[in-house]
Please model this.
Amino acid sequence: FAGTTLATIGAGALIAYLIINLLHLTHGEQTPTYLGVERSRMVCRYGATPLHWFYVAISPLIKFGDWVAKWTLKLFGIEMTGAWLETETDVIESRGQLRERLHSLLQEGELPEERRDEVLNALDVDELSISEIMIPSSDIVALSTTATPGENFERIRNTPHTRFPLVGESLTDFRGVVYAPSIIDNFEALRAGERSFDEIAAPTMTLAADTNVSDAFDQFQAEDQELALVLRDGEVVGLLTATDALEAVMGELDDPLD
Model:
């Protein structure tokens, strides 16, 4: 048998089988898996559409193969009942149960307590009203279009804030939001009266008092703002900054100017 054509064919087939399986294991399974883990977004961006159409193209073949497999089992008296799809699972029916489950899972991990609290706080922000974390209207430091530049500069000088609401005669006359960089860039022009605070103010942003922190986050991002006045029945009841909303999740942030 050794040295015969049959032996040569057999050895070649065995070697080819080993090579094909090795390539399938490394380049067909492991390499794509590692790539998907390390570059998930890139893989989704460039791979989703081709994979979708590939699935559409071979779906008849998949269905045929599935039918053949079930038909083969049926020859041996095995019916596919789908009972394996009905395995009992715990159903989370309330946010409280979800929080308890998540808390248990986090405790099993190696996350520090502060990180665990942040995850749980993120779960609660859509139930936390901004009225619970806002600055009350009595504590709002606002710049005014009716004040002189010197008076506005004095208000800025006496507070550590970097964002100010700009109002008219009252808080309900909300004109815009003034940020410290805009004040610095236009300081001389503002002091000389060549420019007004109205001209450097960003657009206004308001939030209803019953808005939750999660929705406030979304609105800050949508409007590219960091400060909003909080309204109830048309009256200003407070002020909220993006930092206030972030602290509801991350905890108190130490500001060296506070």
User: Anything to note?
Assistant: Residues 95-124 form one domain. The chain has three domains: 5-77, 95-124, 130-250. The chain has a mean pLDDT of 86.
